[in-house]
Amino acid sequence: MLAIFQKRIVINFSLVISIILLSILSIHWHHEMYLLHKTEKTLKNENEKINALNRQLMMEYSEIQSGVTVYQKSQDELLMIAPLESEMEEVTI
Fold it and tell me: In Å, what is the CA distance from 55 to each residue of 13, 43, 62, 88?
């Protein structure tokens, strides 16, 4: 009878210890998931800022390129040239 009682105590004690360890591991896992989520949000915000800056720079570059293209086309195909300063002084409104 005493041997059965001692086995029962050992089994209960090991179950309690395993439940406590599982709880501690669960708490640790949830904390790691929280840190991962926090890092993910931070990186996502930084990535959005970088993408917005990239889009802005691409738009500015496109505007500059289209202006250069228009200027080159006006000189090459339409044979437009910039007026000389002497000609600009003669024109009055």
Answer: 62, 18, 10, 40
- Residue with tokens 């360890």, as numbered in its chain: 21
Rounded Cα–Cα distance for residues 65 and 76 (Å): 16
Written in H, E and C, the secondary structure of 3-72 is HHHHHHHHHHHHHHHHHHHHHHHHHHHHHHHHHHHHHHHHHHHHHHHHHHHHHHHHHHHHHHHHHHHHHH
* Domain spans in the chain, listed from the N-terminal domain onward: 2-65
> pLDDT digits over 21-64, tens only?
999 999 999 999 999 999 999 999 999 999 999 999 999 888 88
